[in-house]
Amino acid sequence: MSRKFPVLSAKDVVRVLRRSGFALTGQAGSHQKWRHADGRQVIVPMHGAKAIPIGTLKNIVEGSGIDVEEFR
């Protein structure tokens, strides 16, 4: 399979995080903090329907421990 990262909005990312057991624990401005019960944590920038930049998405995927295929 291709290792290219998908183009996703914050809403799409949040859907995958919720499905994987993450819960919203806080928000500062437009940035939401999502935490898993085992301690993993990611920050998701909520900027409407705009796509999350690839570098930011890579950090979210890496920090969440979720395989990139789950985000497709």
Could you list some keywords that capture this structure?
72 residues, Metal Transport, Frataxin, Chain A, 3-stranded antiparallel beta sheet, globular
How is this structure best described in words?
With 72 residues, this protein is of the alpha+beta class. It has a domain at 24-71: Hypothetical protein (Metal Transport, Frataxin, Chain A, 2-Layer Sandwich). It has helices spanning 10-19, 54-64, and strands spanning 23-28, 31-35, 41-45. A three-stranded antiparallel beta sheet has the order 1-2-3. A hairpin with a 5-residue loop joins β2 (31-35) and β3. The protein is globular and about 30 Å long. The N and C termini lie close together (12 Å).
